[in-house]
Structures are given as C-alpha cells and as structure tokens.
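dumping this here before i forget
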Amino acid sequence: MKINEIVPQKNEYTKVLDTIALKPKLLYYYGEWPKRRVKTVAIVGSRKNTKYGEDVAYKLAYELAKRGVIVISGLAYGIDSIAARGALDSGGKTIAILGTEIERIYPRQHIALAEEIVKKNGVVASEYKLGDEVFMKTSFLQRNRIISGLADAVVVIEAAERSGTLNTAAHALSQGRDLFAVPGRVYDKMSAGCNFLISKGANPLYSIEEFVQYFAPRGKKKQTEQISLFGDTPEERAVLKKLAAGIRDGDEIMEQLEMPVQVYNQVITMLEIKGAIRPLGANTWILAA
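structure:
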C-alpha cells in the first residue's frame, strides 16, 4: 500500500482537526480521504468486549455506514475492529487511526483488515512515520484525540471502570463533540465505564434505530406528514419544523425560535405525549419514526 501525507487544514474533511488542542501538523495515511465533510461517528470500546458489545458495535456501525455515515475508530482488538467490520460489510466507509507508525500496522493480526479498509475506499492513518519517537503507552492515548476530533459524535459501547476508552470520551467532551454511551447492567464490569459516563451527563444510547435516524434521517415525506398531523398549535408546528430540518438540540431550537423556556417545555411535553417526538437524552429530540 502506498503511504501518502496530508496537512489536515488543507482538506475539507480533515480540517476540523484545526479546532482541537494539540492539532497534528501532518497525517500519514493509506487510502483516500473524503473530498468533503461527511457525517462521522466514532465507535470505541473495550478490547475485551462481551457478546452484547459485539452485537451492538456491529449493528450500529453497519446501519450507520449503510446510510453514508463514516465510522471511525482505532484498529484495536474488540469493539474497534468489530465496528470496522460492520461498516465494511454494509458497503460503507470506515477510517482507522493508528497509535503506531504508519508503516507498522498494529496489531499485526489486523493487517488484512487494514488492507480491506483501504481497498474499499476507506483510510488507515497515523500522525507518526518510521523514525519518529513513539512510546506505546502514550501514543495510543494521544491518537484518541484524533479519533474524537474527526467525529461529529463519539459512542462508547463497552468500557471497564479504568478503561483507556474513557480517554477518548474525555477528548470528545473537551472538543465539544456529542458523547453517547451504551448502558449496561450494574454488575457487568465491561459496562462500568459506560454507566459512569451516563451518570456524568453522557447521552444514553438506548436504541440503535433512533440513533441512526438521528444522524442519518430518512423518510422526509413521512416527517412532513407528522408536522401536519401533530402540530395542533403554531408553537408545536414551529418546533416540529426545526426537528424535521435536522436540529435536535432543545436549547438551539429555543434560541432560533426565540421561545421562552416555559412555553418550550409545555410544547415538548405535549408533542411527546402525542407520540410526535422521541427523546434522545440531554434535551435532544427526534421526530418519531
């Protein structure tokens, strides 16, 4: 595979990295970066995933990539590689960010997976090249800022209480990215990290279908019908139109509509009772499917 290099600020897709702390000066990569900004979701989690984590990671990546969302992760064992596999199997694109030099695919058992990612128009990238001083204990933590930095949202599927995955979540929060976590049973060690993130304000991911609809909505005609069916007042119709336009954040809706919080709360409550909208957590909403 041919090694290329790019200045992130000079590419429409990667220039979002100009907004993060410790922005990389160069990225070395195999494959071809998208020529324009595309919705991107990072899927990260434990290397020692459970069957539950495997099912969620694969299904989520598959459904997102099938709708044109780019799935980004590392190339590690566990959730990372499962997410890449789901995206590839759907015919979609995926990006893998290495914590090693670009010439040294790690783990070596995933060389074939890396080659498949590139063959199917994806990207395998690193900020390191052969000859750079790379310290494994820190380089993998440093690359996490690139994974979250390239994403519009980060989804943590499984993580132990002291998992390195929580480092990616911390980067996501500091970079202003949407953070989601898949909840698990309280006595499952691999769900301890996710449950902790939710307790600190991360959005709980309860439904793959709703999450996918949130990032890659379909059925605009159906959404228009809902506006007519459920919008019984001017305020309700105004909120529904904002949701149909892709705005999900309640604070942003209130700001754009110049709607008092008391009125907004009443409207949202009535729309939820009528079944016109569904909550995604943290005052974000989606039109009911």
